[in-house]
Amino acid sequence: MAFLELKQITAGYSKQEMILRDFSLAVEKGKLVSLLGPSGCGKTTTLRLIAGFLTPREGRIFLNGKDITQSPPHTRNIGLVFQSYALFPHLTVFDNVAFGLRMRKVPKDELSERVSKALSITDLSGLEHRLPSQLSGGQRQRVALSRALVIEPSLLLLDEPLSNLDAKLRVGMRAELSRIQKTLGITMIYVTHDQVEALSLSDEVVVMQGGKIEQIGSPQQIYRYPTTPFVARFLGFDNRLKGTITGVNPPFGVLSLGGKEFSFSLKESLLGLGHPSSLQEGEEVEVLFRPEDARIEESPIPNSLEVRVLFGTFLGKAVQYLVRFQDQELTVLCSEGYRFQEGQRAFLRLDPTTWFLVRKE
Amino acid sequence: MKSSRFYLAVLVVLYLFLLGPFLLIFVASFGSEPIMTFPPKGFSLRWFVKVFTVRMFLDSFLTSLWIGLASTLSALVIGVPAAYALVRYSFPGRSILEVLFASPAVIPGLVLGFSLLRFFVLIGNFPIQLGLYVGHTVILLPYTVRVVSAALRNLDPSIEEAAVSLGAHRVRSFFLVVLPNIRAGVMAAFILAFITSFNNVPISLFLTGPGIATLPIQMLIYMEYYFDPTIAALSSILIVITVLIVQGAERGLGISQYV
Predict the structure, then answer these.
(1) How many domains does chain B contain in total?
(2) Which of A9, A12, A83, B99 is the most exposed place for a label (fewest CB within 10 A)?
(3) Pick from A72, A89, A99: which is nearest to B166 by CB?
(4) What is the ipTM of this complex?
(5) CA distances in angstroms from B135 to A191, A277, B74, B190, listed in the order given
């Protein structure tokens, strides 16, 4: 049995509406697992179930081999870090961090020792006597982290902990979280809607939608080989092109995009279609691909589509072009700066190994 | 420029209208004539001295004081948990409960006072002091529930969950984390409720009885028999005390955000 197991959970906030149905998840000890998905996908509900703030209508939750489904939340020894930090406004940094130890009746000497250790891990030494209102956002989040870590929880749950911080701080905190997780070897469950956060932090990413798990895998797997159209779109396969299958001769297939034929490897491109052999000639499909996986050129090249440039947006590292192919609009990244004028004819080169094919809905 | 002068004039008239009667009473209380006149003739503090020598004022002041304190505390003891339940949980009958807690503030005081009187008479031999205390507690509840609710709504619910996740039982986390952070709201509710009780006429009018009266009722009775400026002097004292309390509370706690 895994360290944390949710078995066939059905849960929701009202009788009429269940957010999770028959939901199962297993987390191994010492891993950092992200729950990734859009708002309303059930990721925070899952977190609240594990923390004990919500009791499932059906199913069981096991932590370290023990059934905790009915244990009250204050007995679970699970650390929590909130999006809003949730620091106690009337207590100093020291007392905030000491709160959990006081609840556990830890003797005074040990208490102050453990608090200072927790504060030094998160680089907060010297701020013991400040009130939360006298701290910056990043400092508050580190206090919240220390407060949760000092009780040596068997599990640490983080609910979008970085989304209230500005971009630069977020990257710093991300690295810090990763470092702390590796040093302490603590099992963490990290809820986020930000794919970059999930991919950069996790050992394992659980992509969720509509109360169901879409895909579980390592960040690399999830990013490169999404298995459902939802995961593909959520992870940046922003472009879609309509096409028709004109030939199937394993291991290759032929796809026609607006009259132009492309040969592709069935094995690499068919992840969204189930088994490759299920593909049939004449079938209508959609090609999904990332803006960074296509290139635009000035002159015709093999495997390219003739497009018209609509406009470019300067993004710093690259220019993002919106182009039109027949009646479909696509975005492409071009790292060489502004090379195309509005209305200019260009050629879009596609790489079939980065495709994601789905049946037309 | 022209329009701002116009608004200024409107403002001055408005304030005169609102504060005029108070100023009138205030000035009249320093008159030396035995009948209240305005403008007063002469200057004297004897009516202020007289306030403290009239036995029934002192008695009714003490009655008002203890009724006010006791019913305010009771209204808080009932109101704080009620507000907590109304703000934090959704449960069947929640909206009915909300209306119920608001109703004493909506129903005319006289109607409420009369119904309470009939109710106490029905029970039979209900002590007057107890009746006053119960009646005042009822009319104060909407104030405590509303003010404490406002304070609770400003408090992030996740800090309670943080406390619980750190090992505090729900009840304990209420006292350790919630109560200290709504302290200003509870104080504001206390002051508002106390002043409301202290000033109340319609309920007290029905529930007072022989030998027992609250201060406002005693003042009414006094006015029926005497026309000297003692009442004006007493009113001035009450106005000053009220203004001082409210000002102090606003400075220290910022109570206006809760009302």
Answers:
(1) 1
(2) B99
(3) A99
(4) 0.82
(5) 52, 82, 11, 17
CATH number at residue B188: 1.10.3720.10
Dihedral angle, C-alpha A51, A55, A58, A64, nearest 10 °? 30
A170 touches B: beta carbon within 8 Å: no
Q: Does A86 touch chain B (CB under 8 A)?
A: yes
| Among candidate residues B241, B232, B234, B247, the one with its CA nearest the CA of residue B23 | B232
pLDDT in the model for residue A273: 56
For residue B148, the Cα-to-chain-centroid distance in whole angstroms is 15
Nearest to B72, CA basis, from B241, B191, B180: B191
Q: Residue B192: inside a domain, yes or no?
A: yes
Question: Which token pair is B199?
Answer: 């000033």
Per-residue confidence at A277, pLDDT binned at 50, 70, 90?
low
Per-residue pLDDT of B29-70, as tens digits, reads 888 888 877 787 888 888 888 888 888 888 899 999 999 999
Letter string b/e over residues A245-277, b meaning 16 or more CB atoms within 10 A of that residue's CB: beebeeeebebebeeeebebebebbbbbbeebe
Position A272 scores a pLDDT of 56
**Residue B25 maps to a domain:** no
Token pair, residue A144, equals 């919240």
A82: nearest CB among B162, B173, B181: B162
Q: Within an 8 Å CB–CB cutoff, is residue A163 touching chain B?
A: no
Q: Considering only CB atoms, which chain B residues are within 8 Å of A100?
A: 166-167
Place of tokens 């929590």: A80
Is A49 touching B (CB cutoff 8 A)? no
Residue B226: which pLDDT band, with cuts at 50, 70 and 90? Answer: confident
Q: Is residue B159, in this structure, part of any structural domain at all?
A: yes
Q: What residue has token string 């949760």?
A: A148
Query: Residue B259 — pLDDT band, cuts 50, 70, 90?
Result: low
Range of the structural domain that residue B83 is part of: 52-226+253-257
pLDDT top residue among B174 and A259: B174
- Please, what sign has the CA dihedral across residues A239, A240, A244, A250? positive
Tens digits of residue pLDDT in A157-192 = 999 998 888 888 888 888 888 888 988 899 999 999
Distance CA A128, CA A165 (A): 22
